[in-house]
């Protein structure tokens, strides 16, 4: 399935601050530093001005987008890419901007001191789930009623088994990634009723929250 890419750079805090200063000074016809927006962003998220940056992306392909970055501890992250000339970016548009920002701009000012983590466009859910968790997910997905996937007894039982496995293995799978996988990789349409996917996201989040609460409550006895 396609996924919005992330960019995270790890180094010492001072090295990241210096790298961000260098980026802000680096001339570019495509990525333009916006000091006023950057300072406002710093104030809004309670960071120092030298720990944040905003770059405007020039080009018809970028839809007037701005790239927002911040440093926390020893990590520099791209928090978001926000378009001005469109309601939202598609995954492909977002990832193209991220890729060009890193390869054409950021990569020129970093060296071996910096560890770079950047996602690709595609994510195979089988690669991020433990084998037992993936097996439980497939047991539920392959047999449930797609229009009402957790309403019937057997479907609900398999859904709960999947949730318990997610919780026990401390798996980082977001509700959005789960639903995207069902739509793109499994061809789910739920009779073209988008609210069904919203309900499934809620059920996923709520189920995990209950498990976390029960586990925490049990440990305090």
Secondary structure layout:
Elements: E1 7-10, H1 13-25, E2 31-33, H2 35-44, E3 52-57, E4 66-72, E5 75-82, H3 91-104, E6 115-118, H4 125-128, H5 131-143, H6 153-168, H7 175-184, H8 194-219
Antiparallel strand pairs: 1-5, 1-6, 2-3, 3-4, 4-5
Structure description:
The protein is built from eight helices and six strands, in the order βαβαβββαβααααα. The protein has helices at residues 13-25, 35-44, 91-104, 125-128, 131-143, 153-168, 175-184, 194-219; strands at residues 7-10, 31-33, 52-57, 66-72, 75-82, 115-118. Strands 2-3-4-5-1-6 form a six-stranded antiparallel beta sheet, with helices on both faces. β4 and β5 (75-82) form a beta hairpin. α5 packs antiparallel against α6, α6 packs across α8 and α7 (175-184) runs antiparallel to α8. The longest helix is centred in the C-terminal third of the chain and has 26 residues, at 194-219.
Strand order of the largest sheet: 2-3-4-5-1-6
Write down the overall geometry.
elongated
The stretches of 5 or more residues where confidence is low (pLDDT under 50) are none
SS strand fraction? 5-15%
Give the C-alpha Rg. 21 Å
Main sheet? Answer: 6 strands, antiparallel
Let me know the average pLDDT.
91
Task: Figure out the total of helices.
Answer: 8
Structure summary, number of beta strands:
6
N- and C-termini, Cα separation: 42 Å
The secondary-structure element order is EHEHEEEHEHHHHH
Tell me roughly what share of residues is in helical segments: 40-55%
Report the structural category: alpha+beta
């Amino acid at each position: 399935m396609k996924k919005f890419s992330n960019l995270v750079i790890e180094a010492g805090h001072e090295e990241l601050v210096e790298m961000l200063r260098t980026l802000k000074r680096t001339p570019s016809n495509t990525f333009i530093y916006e000091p006023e927006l950057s300072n406002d962003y710093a104030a809004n998220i309670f960071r120092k001005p030298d720990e944040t940056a905003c770059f405007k992306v020039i080009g018809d392909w970028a839809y007037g987008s701005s790239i927002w970055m911040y440093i926390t501890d020893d990590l520099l992250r791209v928090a978001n890419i926000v378009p001005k000339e469109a309601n939202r970016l598609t995954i492909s548009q977002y990832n193209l901007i991220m890729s060009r920002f890193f390869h054409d701009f950021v990569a020129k000012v970093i060296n071996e001191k910096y560890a770079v983590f950047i996602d690709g466009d595609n994510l195979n859910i089988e690669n991020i789930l433990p084998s037992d968790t993936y097996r439980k997910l497939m047991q539920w997905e392959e047999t449930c009623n797609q229009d009402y996937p957790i309403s019937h007894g057997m479907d609900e039982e398999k859904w709960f088994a999947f949730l318990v496995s997610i919780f026990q293995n401390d798996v980082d799978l977001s509700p959005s990634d789960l639903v995207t996988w069902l739509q793109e990789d499994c061809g789910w349409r739920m009779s073209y009723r988008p609210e069904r996917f919203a309900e499934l996201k809620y059920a996923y989040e709520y189920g995990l929250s209950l498990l976390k609460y029960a586990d925490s409550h049990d440990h305090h006895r």
